[in-house]
Amino acid sequence: MGNETVKTDTAILEQLNEPDAIKILVTLDEQGTPHPTPKGSLHWDGERIVSWEILESSRTNRNLTRAIWFEKPIAILLLTSKKQAYKIAAKPIRNVVAGKEFTRYYEEAQQRRGRAIAGVWFFEPTGITDQTPATRIAQEQKAHPYFVHLDQLAAKEPQ
Fold this sequence. Notes:
about 160 residues; alpha+beta; Pnp Oxidase, Chain A; 7 strands
């Protein structure tokens, strides 16, 4: 995967389900300032990305509500157990706060984490970018071969 954004890649999205993966949900507040928050509940259900929201009054929940109302994007930073990093761009498609689907996730949250949830958010992935440092360095060196810091040039010169 190059510097380009891939529309969707199920193999990458399935890594959201790894128990050791670190997942950070990034929303935008009313001024457009990013608000990152760790979200262990983020997972791929085979069709969409799902996340539980614990507090109805949380900044994240307010930002997600704004995002769905005004069609604002969100991002997820996924750090896999194999030290790969991906930025998953997505859009919120709905929030469920009652009904069978909510009850299923509510009971799962109670069992796994011992706490209640206020809602379940569903996201549609719109693109994935490989942010793994080694990948990004290789991409930048290929795209900009002459962007080299002076101390690196001096180290390459014969003494």
